[in-house]
Amino acid sequence: AGGGRAALRACGVHNVCRLLSRRAHGFYARDAGVAHRKNLGLLRRIMCQESTKFKNVWTTHSASPIAYERGRIYMDNYQCCITSIAQQPRLIYQKSKCAKSEKIEDALLLECPLGEMLPSPSDYKASLIVLTVQNWLLRLSADSGEVLEKVYLAGSCCKFFRYLSWDTPQEVMIVKSAQNKLPAAARQAGIQQTVLFYLAVFQVLPLSFIGMLEINKKIFGNSVTDVAVSNGILIVMYSMGLVRLYNFKAILEQFMEQPFDLGQEFNWNGQVGVVGKYPFGLPCNIKITDTPPLLFEASSLENAFQIGGYPWHYIITPNKKKHKGVFHICSLKDNALAKNGIQDMKCCSLEPDWIYFHPDMSGRIIHVGPNLIKVLKLKEVKNHADQMEIAEDFTIVANRENCVNNNVTVTASGRVVKKRFTLLDDDPEQETFKIVDYEDELDLLSTVAVTQIGADGRAHLDFHCNEHGILLKSIPLKESWDVTYSHEVYFDKDLVLHIEQKPNRRFSCYVYQMVCDTARDDD
């Protein structure tokens, strides 16, 4: 306490809240993480200098998908790993080509938690959790591709596990099956399929089995189309646009029949085997026998539903096709529509606008249209503390200064010509926003805007101040950008990476590195 009072006196701060705020911003040199924050602040300033450029240092093409995870580029179905952190990307490992039966369906990067004692030295290094087409869950070393752990998932209950996701990032992982569908002959014979999905739940580092459960029509209804688990919530989606939320942790606790550990011998429903070993796999030890208590439900077009903000709000689109592109922001507490809570850009475009809660945990909302990005915030209505309103924090506008879209033109002879059509808001010849992302370590909002003239499309990546939206840096991408292709752009500190998918499963990867001192290098 005496030391805390001394720190307060030394810095002239006499308010505990201000002291905590100053600590969070790294004002005190002995605080953990201060050096890291200072280094990132320096990197941000260097990167945004006018003399700093981003140079295309590496390009590759592939007939198989290319993935990027935390400084590593994965190719050939994760058999080849290339580091992008070096001055020029270099090979980390190359494994022999795998058989079709070993094809990887999905993958998650697993990073060591801070401040925890782990059972194996390999647990302290990054690893890759992968799911194979034959229902094997493997943990691979991120540095060598070596198999560190392997778990067989599918026993007699399920043969098609396909998806990996986080319930709690880097803590609890969900392995989801494809939707169970009976063969046509079985359906014609009148056989009923009641189990739609299987979910296997794991704690990671060390990897441990929590349980497996089924999503059954008899419990959740006939019209279930998909399920997901996020932040302790089971999300069930229905064909008519309905979304229902359940307490996933409570389900695990209430309906767990018997806990099992990986490697444990078991005798379960007449089967004798070892948990996680071939051919038995995992027991379905969580049996939901009654409909769990409903936490919340909402109806939204295409099951689009998001929760965020402070206090908690959710975003939906009214469940009618005519309302596509209209977003309602409502209080989770009482379903009340926020003041100015209907957001509609009234876009006339081929691709719809999109909206989501800002990933910086500020509670703000990002609404992206073809030529406009709105960053919105929740705030209390004046003189009505129990009511919230949506206010504009800042906007980012596409550069369309040279765009002329007159419906009426006059020829040199004086003849008046009227156009029979109006350009779409996302017409390729006009600068259009395609990607918006957030770099959390540098606290920058990044946008990709594209203009296509003829067959040649040009894109640039812009960095904006996340707090005020001010443009800090613009990076032109050298390669042509075709708006009909699929694109991903990653901005990771001093690296920019562009992955492009062309027709006929042709993939390209372009890597840009930050370079300073450009006096001798025009690139």
Automatic annotation (TrEMBL):
<dbReference type="GO" id="GO:0016567">
    <property type="term" value="P:protein ubiquitination"/>
</dbReference>
<keyword id="KW-1133">Transmembrane helix</keyword>
<keyword id="KW-0472">Membrane</keyword>
<feature type="transmembrane region" description="Helical">
    <location>
        <begin position="195"/>
        <end position="215"/>
    </location>
</feature>
<feature type="transmembrane region" description="Helical">
    <location>
        <begin position="227"/>
        <end position="246"/>
    </location>
</feature>
<dbReference type="GO" id="GO:0080008">
    <property type="term" value="C:Cul4-RING E3 ubiquitin ligase complex"/>
</dbReference>
<dbReference type="InterPro" id="IPR031620">
    <property type="entry name" value="DCAF17"/>
</dbReference>
<keyword id="KW-0812">Transmembrane</keyword>
<dbReference type="Pfam" id="PF15802">
    <property type="entry name" value="DCAF17"/>
</dbReference>
<protein>
    <submittedName>
        <fullName>DCA17 factor</fullName>
    </submittedName>
</protein>
